[in-house]
Amino acid sequence: MLCQNLALFLLFNLKPRGLMNFMPEINLGNLAQIKLFDVLKPLFSGKKTGKITVKGKGGGELYLELGNITHATTSSAVGEYAFFFLMGLKAGTASFEPDGVPSERTISISTEQLLLNWSYRKQEWDKLKEVIPSTNAVFRLSLQKSPENKNINADQWNVLALCNGTRTISDIAESLSGDEFKTSKIIFQLVQLALLEKAGDQKPAKKKPVLGNFFPTVETELKKVIGPIAPLIIDDKLSDLGEKKDSLGQEQAFSFIEALSEEISNDSKKKEFLRIMTDFLSVEKKGAEPRHLPGVDLKL
Known about the structure:
Strand order of the largest sheet: 1-5-2-3-4
Number of strands: 7
Number of domains: 3
Number of helices: 12
Shape: flat
Strand content: 5-15%
Distance between the termini: 33 Å
């Protein structure tokens, strides 16, 4: 972890020329410990140019030019879909080569739009997770008998044939297209058709979710201090907690706000964000005094 923090310091604080002379390629660490998105955020704001290489099972490359993503490639995809794949990796090592320039540019949309598209895809994943908790989940043919005839397409047949109660979604995806997202969507559809069921299915206990105006308020206030990337930060922190917007419990709201505040580098803006949000949460409880996070001095 110390080496990883040193690498990030060198990457985000030294000038490009100094980086090239001192360390042509910087090891950013293991994606099991640091998310690729967390590495990219300061690259965007610092308008960096270079190549990120992800090594391991299903790795690939990302290219940035002045903080904009212009090319992404994996063994099975290029462009936007390759970017989506790399952003979802939870294993492998990442490194950065300053000033690396792509041989081609496969991403023409703005980085902001690309991140929004990735956010929408993450939202789709959230919906799938209602049925599919992870790509390590195992499905089998449903024991329920239905009198109705089911019409399914070729892709659905291929997936159905491999769901034998022992293969994981990752195993099935690797046997077919290699796209875990596509395979998960197909399995979700087959579950809805009552053709598949999850082995050892267990439903989690329900929690009392935060109120409906919580996330709009959080997003509005966070945008004031970190800009349009705020919705992505919110989704990222929810993912860290293993939650979704409609499942975050009221008892988790304060710790969630505190986690978001760690993304604000300006100390005074961070304190102001905490003050506004803790006061907002407090007044939601009728007659309650404003509640602040423990150990945080919010006086500016």
